[in-house]
TrEMBL record, chain A:
InterPro entries: UCP010256 (IPR011195), Uncharacterised_CoxE (IPR008912), vWFA_dom_sf (IPR036465). It comes from the Archaea. SUPFAM superfamilies: vWA-like. Pfam families: VWA_CoxE. Signal peptide: none annotated. Residues 75-105 are annotated as: Disordered. Residues 75-88, 96-105 have a biased composition (Basic and acidic residues). This is VWA domain-containing protein. It comes from Caldiarchaeum subterraneum.
């Protein structure tokens, strides 16, 4: 049986991981504890490896874990444990683990309410209402359907493809069970991967509230949706939003990205996106950029980034808040540069309600020709 | 062999199978075996993720059952499918001789079941559990991932016509991902997680000496040095992995090179760089 300090260490690491927003549940803690029985830990590094293996499930969280572990190691042996936890049997271990989680959860809640937020303190960021979430979910679902580029789960009749045995046999009944013709089917195109990139710079200030809420709604959709934000630099926020909800996430994001910083460099940020994340996009991906196109960077860079974006992904959608206003013309330098590479330019209303959505994406408005999903090599960059 | 296994023994055993495992990796494999949990390995392409499963299968003296994931893979392609053409032929053959019920029983028996990898892993009969490699899970779509969750939790499959089939021995499951898509939290939670990255120069030297013993130590050092420098270049879309290093080392031995000079380098660079843009970048930087 393992001695108490190990159990304490495990729960403590788990608690701190959760505070930092790393998903680490009871199952992980139990694993880590059980692993301790199997491994002879001679060095600190061994201990670290075991805990990391069992408790951290993402590359992005490795860094956070390392920090927490090193801190704990510096403190060396932890403080006195509560008296009622001196028994060392397994049932007790599990109990303690659970208790650890619930107290951590409480603490997490408290941080959400009382954390000092420099920027967002001034402005109340309301948690989205249920009605908003529902409407948003409907809109996003439509959006993903409308922009679908990938085959889904369902089948439809076609000339080539898999043999549709069901239909074949059914038709064969007309000829007394003699199969004269094989009918075929293929998958219906109903899905797309969606990458949403939100501009959170100063010029988008007025829309922050709505942006945060739609980001949140988007990120919670499915794993096929990734959300990024940028102002002067780019940050992936999908898992952050999923775990924390809009309030705390907004705080963390504002800490990471220079939100109120002057100067948006759309071009540079998109270039970073292509550099770092080109693996996650493909011809089945729709990229949605939400920005007003106020760009202080080099238009040349933006042009190049947009061109490679267009080549990498299936469709590029640009959501510009000003596009809702009547008589809108894309006149900012950023917009003018990006226009040739955009498939659909829509206003913010498209995300707000189904009605707004239909004005931009409705069946009669814009013919949305489906580009075939091709696996051939992309043309080389000029 | 499973009883008295320790991570240290595992490192040695894997080395006998020509795989250089570092400490975290050996520990991960060891714990996956002991805790009977799937191991999710993420990392750059060509860093030996798939190889772990292959080596492990050889080590455990068992079969490697591989499920290669791809976009649009469905449960029937991973689990089982009825052999329709054979069933149709049999219906025709038995039509006059047997009753409908007898025919139904006949054609929905195990004989007509096409076992795809997941079912094969459950039905595997051998002294040791099989190694089930679920390769490049990130290529499959989320629906399939959801389906896998169920399979990995219970290790059982229900076929309406035959009933529920349970695993005779829980297979050792290795799942790999190249991170082209973020793997869902549900799956992560059920697995042990390891991220493998490019090896350190020392480890790469060791791998070279094991895998390409014909290469002289001096040349090997040059090879490692160059590849490591190449990996420092941030602009490359695809940095060379270990498999590229090995390809290159093999190419050099086939060509009988004794040192890396510009002419050899430019003619064999395609082993390392497999992208037109990257080639241009490397040339522009004057590395070649």
């Amino acid at each position: 049986m393992l001695e108490q300090p190990y159990l304490f260490l495990v729960t403590e690491v788990a608690r701190r991981l959760r505070l930092e927003g790393v998903k680490c549940g009871t199952a992980e803690t139990i694993d880590a504890y059980r692993a301790g029985e199997f491994v002879q830990m001679r060095t600190v590094q061994d201990l670290k490896n075991v805990l990391r293996l069992c408790m951290v499930k993402r590359l992005e969280d490795y860094e956070i874990f390392d920090k927490i572990f090193d801190e704990l190691e510096k403190q060396k042996r932890p403080q006195e444990q509560p008296k009622n936890e001196t028994q060392g049997d397994k049932a007790q271990a599990v109990k303690t683990v659970e208790r650890g989680e619930s107290s951590a959860d409480k603490r997490k809640e408290m941080t959400v309410y009382y954390s000092p937020v420099e920027v967002f303190m001034k402005r109340e960021l309301p948690t989205p209402t249920l009605a908003f979430m529902r409407e948003s979910k409907r809109v996003m679902k439509r959006l993903r359907r409308r922009l679908a580029l990938l085959p889904g789960r369902r089948y439809t009749r076609s000339a080539k493809g898999y043999v549709d045995f069901r239909e074949t046999i059914r038709t064969s009944l007309r000829t007394h069970g003699e199969i004269l013709r094989l009918l075929h089917m293929k998958r219906k195109v109903t899905r797309c991967k969606l990458v949403a990139i939100f501009d959170v710079s100063g010029s988008m200030d007025t829309y922050t509230e709505f942006l945060m809420q739609s980001m949140y709604a988007l990120a919670r959709q499915s794993v096929a949706v990734e959300v990024f934000v940028f102002s002067t630099r780019l940050l992936k926020v999908s898992s952050l939003l999923k775990y924390f909800g809009p309030k705390k996430a907004a705080e963390l994001i504002s800490r990471e990205v220079n939100i109120w910083g002057s100067g948006t460099r759309i071009g540079n940020c998109l270039a970073t996106f292509i550099d770092k994340y080109r693996g996650i996009v493909g011809k089945g991906t729709v990229v949605m950029i939400v920005s007003d196109g106020w760009d202080t960077g080099d238009p040349e860079v933006l042009d190049r980034a947009m061109r490679s974006m267009k080549e990498l992904v299936g469709r590029v959608i640009w959501i510009n808040p000003h596009a809702d206003k009547p008589g809108f013309k894309p006149r900012t330098i950023g917009m003018e540069t990006a226009m040739p590479y955009i498939d659909v330019l829509a206003g913010m209303n498209a995300l707000k309600s189904l009605k707004g959505f239909k004005t931009y994406f409705g069946a009669g408005v814009q013919p949305m020709g489906r580009r075939p999903v091709s696996r051939r090599a992309r043309p080389a960059l000029p | 062999m499973l009883e008295n296994l320790t991570p240290e023994i595992l490192v040695k055993e894997m080395e006998k199978e020509l795989y250089v495992a570092d400490e975290p990796l050996a520990l991960a494999v060891y714990l996956a075996l002991k805790l009977e949990k799937p191991l999710l390995i993420e990392g750059e392409p060509g860093c030996g993720k798939t190889e772990v499963a292959k080596v492990l299968a050889r080590l455990l003296n068992t079969e490697l059952i591989r499920l290669q994931c791809y976009e649009g893979i469905t449960a029937s392609q991973a689990l089982y499918e009825w052999d329709y053409p054979r069933q149709l032929i049999n219906i025709r053959l038995l039509e006059d001789k047997k009753s409908v019920d007898e025919i139904t029983e006949e054609i929905f028996s195990e004989k007509f079941l096409l076992k795809r990898p997941l079912l094969a892993a459950l039905l595997y009969e051998g002294p040791n559990p099989p190694v089930l490699l679920i390769d490049e899970i990130d290529r499959s779509d989320e629906e399939f991932e959801g389906f896998l969750l169920e399979f990995l939790a219970e290790f059982q499959v229900t076929i309406p016509e035959l009933g529920t089939i349970r695993a005779k021995k829980k297979p050792v499951v290795i799942i790999t991902s190249n991170r082209t898509r973020e793997v869902g939290d549900g799956l992560r939670r059920r697995c042990l997680y390891l991220y493998v990255t490019y090896p350190s120069p020392e480890k790469e030297m060791k791998i070279l000496s094991l895998k390409v013993p014909q290469l002289s130590p001096k040349l090997a050092a040059e090879v490692v040095n160059f590849v490591q420098r190449l990996r420092q270049v941030g602009e490359l879309a695809k940095k060379p992995g270990i498999s590229e290093t090995l390809d290159w080392a093999n190419a050099l031995t086939v060509l009988g090179a004794t040192e890396i000079n510009p002419s050899i380098l430019s003619s064999t660079l395609t082993c390392l760089i497999k992208n037109e843009d990257d080639l241009r970048i490397v040339r522009d930087l004057g590395l070649v």
